[in-house]
């Protein structure tokens, strides 16, 4: 089943142009301005009445929820909250009656996500699931949902399921936006941007060898920070989770500006940082954060979109991803962090497909 690949994680990273394409297939309107979903079981009228969305998930899927929060608030202007499923199920939080609850789960069998979904249903909320396993318990028990169609994910470290979840959330933000304030023109721009993603991911994957060389340079460190602002904050969290679960390096993700509230104390020659920098309004602020780290002798690996104007020689290593619409930045920026973690783990001799202490699907509390 592995074909020419050495590990399922590698195979699944390289499958992403296809898995992303499959998630989009047949899901755009004929006029190319919005997304269409078959299984929501909610009419546009009902969806217009939703005045809050609560996302529930665990692990990597929880990071997808954080991306969804930014995207849905920005493009559909609906307030979004994100909770760990394990916390929500026992917290008894008061919810507005027009809240839509969305659970995200690759396997559809994660016990905490299922427990949280059941708790939301018990209280009478409408529930949807974003899920990669057709017929899973979470898919069956929710009122409606969207299948990811990313294909089976075997590697314990989630890769293609994560980018596919973000893709679905971007399409959902587009769909909900077009039911509200998002214009036809803005919708068309987003659809075009989404359709370009598989090719752009393919182009980033061609940098595999370069990323491998960078990873080998940093594989000996025992600590690593991942920093990013706005949409890049959840990707920083995901980068840290990926690195820690397969390489056992202690890694943390932070919003870059939070550095000075504590984590900057960790910065030294022995603690590198991975910066996620995207062009746009927040770039100058991210640059200032990179300079803060460099001033403290911290090594910096920068993953940046092509439009970022980084001063020559500021960072130690750099990976450039294609310039793109903001809505697809989280997908493209995820690819280098997956490859980086994969190669660091291999350089440390770790079993990337079966990391210690972890199961693919967490079906016990
Ligand atoms: O199947 P699920 O998406 O519900 O799984 C949730 C988490 O257990 C999962 O994402 C976990 O964090 C992965 N090992 C991350 O790579």
Automatic annotation (TrEMBL):
Enzyme Commission code: 2.6.1.16
Transmembrane segments: none
Keyword Protease found: no
Catalytic machinery residues: 360
Primary localization: cytoplasm
Coiled-coil annotated spans: none
Description of how the protein assembles with itself and partners: Homodimer.
Name of the protein in question: Glutamine--fructose-6-phosphate aminotransferase [isomerizing]
Source species: Thalassobacterium sedimentorum
Biological classification of the source: Bacteria, Pseudomonadati, Verrucomicrobiota, Opitutia, Puniceicoccales
Gene: glmS
Positions spanned in the full protein: 252 to 616 of 616
